[in-house]
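Severity: low
Component: inverse-folding endpoint
Summary: output formatting inconsistent between runs
Steps to reproduce: submit the following structure tokens with default settings.
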């Protein structure tokens, strides 16, 4: 089964950009991703640019509106994702628990709806 691991945190959570702590955490991220690859679970994954780069589109009743920024104000922002292929939800949540962002943010685990 395929699952999305959606990575959320407060906008300025985690180590400061350019700090030794950030460099150490980046090594953890690379090791985490490599462990997924080695296990055959990794399908895709990428960080996202900051919320200031977001554009939200709505098309209600024929009216198209383009708004700079995310859809709603939230305490945590979507900062990236992993797509994994594992046997079940338990395995997906095991990967989520190992994710470096779980220490200061959250990982939402959602099954991908298979459409055919």
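Observed output (run 2 of 3):
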């Amino acid at each position: 089964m395929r699952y999305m691991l959606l990575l959320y945190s407060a906008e300025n959570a985690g180590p400061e950009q350019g700090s030794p702590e950030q460099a150490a955490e980046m090594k953890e991220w690379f090791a985490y991703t490599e462990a997924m690859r080695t296990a055959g679970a990794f399908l895709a994954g990428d960080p996202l640019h900051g919320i200031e780069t977001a554009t939200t589109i709505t098309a209600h009743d024929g009216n198209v509106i383009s708004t700079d920024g995310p859809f709603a104000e939230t305490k945590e922002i979507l900062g990236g994702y992993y797509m994994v292929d594992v046997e079940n939800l338990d395995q997906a949540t095991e990967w989520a628990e190992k994710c470096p962002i779980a220490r200061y943010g959250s990982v939402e685990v959602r099954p991908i709806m298979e459409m055919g």
